[in-house]
Amino acid sequence: LGASAAGGMLMGLLHGVFVPGGIASLMLLFNNNLASSALSAISPAQLGREVLVLTFVGFMGGFGGSLLDSLLGATVQATYYDDETKKIAKRSGPTTTKVGGWGFLSNEMVNVVSTAMSALVAALLARPLLNWI
Hints:
Shape: elongated
Number of helices: 4
Order of helices and strands: HHHEEEH
Radius of gyration: 21 Å
Structural class: mainly alpha
Number of strands: 3
């Protein structure tokens, strides 16, 4: 759980820091009217505050998504034990026994739900925070 949360936080932090800078670099590289008007419409101080807020939102979104993924995986996702191979299995089979979970979400669906929910919450939190600064 700790490694998963740390990985989610790292990816959120990296995304928040490098993506805005990368977009600004590409806009400067192409130097068209849209890029110059978009960059001149915001002061460097305001850009710095927005990058800081979006970095925080990305960090928290990655952390929250990682925790939600772990929680759903531990409670809702079905877990099976294969008596033949003596290992935990992701899917049911002729030699498996269900040992936990409810079974209506697979591992892939847990990933989709936790990613979608954390992205939605991060997006809903980003707008008020950006308006506040």
